[in-house]
Write a structure and sequence with these properties.
This protein has 171 residues and is mainly beta. The protein has a single domain, classed as Porin (Beta Barrel). It has one helix and ten strands; from the N terminus they run αββββββββββ. β4 and β5 form a beta hairpin. The radius of gyration is 18 Å and the shape is elongated. The relative contact order is 0.22.
Length: 171
């Protein structure tokens, strides 16, 4: 799997292009959540709409307290964000934004000595900040980001830190 990932990165990086943002970007992130990211750059290149789909709770909070029990394993997440960008140098930008996140994961509680599995479908707010470096003469950018998910339904104010590193292909 690692060889396929590295080969894909080499092939994509051999493509010609500019280091600037285009209209769209697709990428992959390793972190929490890990998964696929899709961005649409709005006309002014200062704002984007981003959608993420991936694995949630696999790194931070694999085992964490939730309601009257705890999470014990990873689940699925889907998020949508609106981001603002600021140019720091010609190849480096920072960004920040807010959005919503949908999660689906099982949690466990022990009643009368029996461990019970319960599905949890959550919905909450998401905040995120990051740095993105655009490679010269390449459509690739490398990013790092941190953020937080605060669940509103069903566990009010359940807090989950998020973040990761990734790469995007801008086209």
């Amino acid at each position: 799997m690692k060889k396929i990932f590295l080969l894909t990165i080499l092939i994509i990086s051999s493509l010609t292009g500019y280091s600037q943002e285009k209209n769209w970007a697709v990428g992959a992130k390793v972190g929490d959540p890990s998964g696929i990211t899709l961005r649409h750059y709005l006309g002014n290149d200062k704002n984007t709409v981003e959608v993420n789909v991936g694995v949630y709770g696999a790194i931070w909070g694999l085992k964490s307290n939730y309601k009257d029990g705890q999470f014990d394993g990873a689940g699925f997440s889907f998020s949508g964000l609106y981001l603002w960008h600021n140019e720091m140098t010609s190849n480096l930008k920072n960004y920040y934004g807010f959005g919503v996140q949908f999660t689906s994961r099982n949690w466990y509680e022990t009643k009368n000595g029996v461990r019970q599995e319960n599905p949890a479908t959550g919905l909450g707010g998401l905040g995120q900040v990051g740095l993105e470096y655009y490679l010269s003469s390449s459509p690739l950018s490398i990013f790092g980001e941190v953020g937080a998910y605060v669940e509103l339904v069903p566990a009010i104010l359940y807090f989950h830190p998020q973040g990761g590193l990734g790469v995007r292909l801008n086209f």
